[in-house]
Amino acid sequence: MYTIEDLALTLSQYLPYEQVSKVKRAYYYAEQAHDGQRRKSGEPYVTHPLAVAEILSELRMDCDGLTAALLHDVIEDTGISREALTEQFGEGVASLVDGVSKLTHLEFNSQVEKQAHNFQKMAMAMADDIRVILVKLADRLHNMRTLDAMPANKKRRIARETLDIYAPIANRLGMYNVRVDLESLAFQAYYPMRARMLQRAIHKKYGQQRIKDTQKLEDTIRSELAADYIEASISVREKHIYSIYQKMDKKRRSLDEIMDVMGVRIVTDRHDSCYRILGVIHALFKPIEGRFKDYIAVPKSNGYQSLHTTVLGANGIPMEIQIRTEEMDLVANNGIAAHWAYKVSGTSNMPSNHDRATKWVKSLLEIQQKARNPVEFVDNVKSDLFPDEVYVFTPNGQIIELPSGATPVDFAYGVHTEIGNTCISCRINRRLAPLSTQLESGQTVEIITAKNAQPNVAWLSFAITGKARTNIRHYLKDKQRENAISIGYRLLTRSLNAFKTNVEELTAEQIAQVLTNHQLATMDDLLESIGKGRHVGYLVARELFPNIDEDTLVTPKSFKVNGSEGMLISYAKCCSPIPGDPIVGYVQVDKGIIIHHLNCPNVQDHLSSPERFIHMAWGKEIEEELHISLIVTYINERGAVAKIASSISDTDFQVSNLDIIERGRVSRLRLSITISSRVGLADVMRRIKAVRCVEKVTRETIVGR
């Protein structure tokens, strides 16, 4: 059994005596705190934090990180407080332990919400100290190694969470070894039958003669490199099982189509030797076209650097060759944890992935601040944990790393939040392109902005990065509140006009009483609620003036539609009113004002709530573009539809759709068109009626049915 003395022996290889003593003191403190507690397997509980510290010692974690690892469950599972830990081991250790601890004193509506709150707390602690996630990953890794003691349902839940959150985080931080262990263990726990079947298939395909072929391959490469006086270590590996499964599942490929089941890793001492080795490999084996990637020149977002090429081996089986330096190999295997290995050795040349990882963790703060709740926060973070990336350039040559499937909107927010909020279009490789275009590596993207532009709700259908989606939602939420307050103010003012007063003349006592009645904090909250239809302006006005006789009230003026009210004034699709039509407004909860044609039959359905109706009128200067449909009845002769379409082709009106709804000698078609006034509509209808084969043109609304 692994003991604290075994850990101390390992730590003495890279930590000074007094720091090793502090770690040992933390172990005895944890042993006493967890006295009497046992794991599901029956072992004393303290064996778990000791195993977590062992994992971190292999990564050369520093003294405070190891101390926190040994104490990471003390706050959560014992009666010891954070203050007590601070007194014994210092604020740094106590902060790390608190960041790793779960939320145990709150009640949650669901397991999903509980996990989201826990992850949000941990992520915020990560932003202060990246060691929090390293301790948590080591904690999760040991839990996965001892998962068999858990009941089946809990085992599957923990495995799923590991695949969804913790393995991708390890990947994002460049910790290859930890990620592979987490994925392999979670895959076997969540899909035990698939894991066994795939392992058997791999062994059947590659198992025969594998040891002999591997040795022969290593000898061949080693002799060729020696002939060129290149020193390097060579290892042949099999791609881990979950990675193979992912490629087969996502890309719908068979095992025969996976090109990098077998791989060769070549580690050398110098940067320039990597490219020399690449030349030797391509001379020795036939490279497969399109399968070369230079991650040395353009590192991955987690700091990973290596040359990748896929070649056909001597037996015709594709294999991936990875070529890197010793420093790159350390960073590739341990990722951000390599930072501490360099730190304790006193090396000044720190790996750049530490800065990259820290930058990513800091970006979690912005996502968290603008997310509406922890569940949304976790969903947005998940979208940032894609294993595949694209690398695109700004016009001045800066590289921006984005997940696969990212669009120019994601790029814009990746450069700066304000650029994302004001972007209107883009150029990809100097050509105008839609904002929904999926970007590819190597492209140069230029974002075109406008001072008064704002995010569009449609962007949420194609933006995929957490930063983009969070900022879009945050902006739209703030804009909706702003619009709702403005409309609520107008609606309340209109209602108060009937009482011969206005909002400014209300007393503080009147306002306080109404806010208390509706459990609202501020006047803006009340106005927002009125604007969103949760409260009715007229009824609020009656509350403010309960003693006034209704017979003395003045009829309020019509509510003017100016066309710039924002997202809380919309037009009913059932009757499609356009400027010039007689209209009425209906205040619907959380949708604001829905404008109907005055004669729309659907208005009759709402007569049970007359206080929600508003007399409305069009503003004088309104130029609102609205969609309507025309029903055209025509004689079905040769070229009839083309003649109808061409009759309005030279106007400014846009035809969005043309649909034949009835065929015969006399046919009918639906013409969808964007129009801005009754005058324009009359002009379009006159032009269509002038076509010789047309018998009748009517506007399609419920009114006319």
Describe the oligomeric state of these chains in a short phrase: single chain
Output the CATH homologous superfamily of the largest domain.
Hypothetical protein af1432
Characterize the largest beta sheet: strand count, sense, and whether it forms a barrel: 6 strands, mixed
Question: Low-confidence spans: pLDDT under 50, at least 5 residues?
Answer: 345-351
Write the layout of secondary structure elements.
Blueprint: H1 4-11, H2 17-33, H3 47-58, H4 63-71, H5 74-77, H6 82-89, H7 91-100, H8 111-128, H9 131-145, H10 152-172, H11 176-190, H12 192-206, H13 210-227, E1 232-238, H14 241-250, E2 262-268, H15 271-284, E3 286-287, E4 293-294, E5 307-312, E6 318-325, H16 326-334, H17 338-345, H18 353-370, H19 374-383, E7 389-393, E8 399-403, H20 408-415, H21 417-422, E9 423-428, E10 431-433, E11 445-449, H22 466-497, H23 508-517, H24 523-531, H25 537-544, E12 559-561, E13 569-571, E14 583-588, E15 592-597, H26 601-604, E16 613-618, E17 626-635, H27 640-646, E18 654-662, E19 666-675, H28 678-689, E20 694-699
Parallel strand pairs: 2-6, 12-16, 13-15
Antiparallel strand pairs: 1-2, 3-5, 4-5, 5-6, 7-8, 9-10, 9-11, 14-15, 14-16, 17-19, 17-20, 18-19
Helix pairs in contact: 1-2, 1-3, 2-4, 3-4, 3-9, 4-7, 4-9, 6-7, 7-8, 7-9, 8-18, 8-19, 9-11, 10-11, 11-12, 18-19, 18-22, 19-22, 20-22, 22-24, 22-25
Structure description:
- In eubacteria ppGpp (guanosine 3'-diphosphate 5'-diphosphate) is a mediator of the stringent response that coordinates a variety of cellular activities in response to changes in nutritional abundance.
- Keywords: Hydrolase.
- Residues 629-702 form the ACT domain.
- This protein is an alpha+beta fold.
- The protein has five domains: 4-175, Hypothetical protein af1432 (Orthogonal Bundle), CATH 1.10.3210.10; 194-334, 2-Layer Sandwich (Beta Polymerase, domain 2); 475-552, no CATH class; 559-618, no CATH class; 626-699, ACT domain (Alpha-Beta Plaits, 2-Layer Sandwich), CATH 3.30.70.260.
- The protein is built from 28 helices and 20 strands.
- The strands form five sheets. Strands 1, 2, 3, 4, 5 and 6 form a six-stranded mixed beta sheet that branches. A five-stranded mixed beta sheet has the order 12-16-14-15-13, covered by helices on one side. Strands 18-19-17-20 form a four-stranded antiparallel beta sheet, covered by helices on one side.
- Helix 7 runs antiparallel to helix 8 (111-128).
- The longest helix has 32 residues, at 466-497.
- It starts with a helix and ends in a 6-residue tail after the last strand.
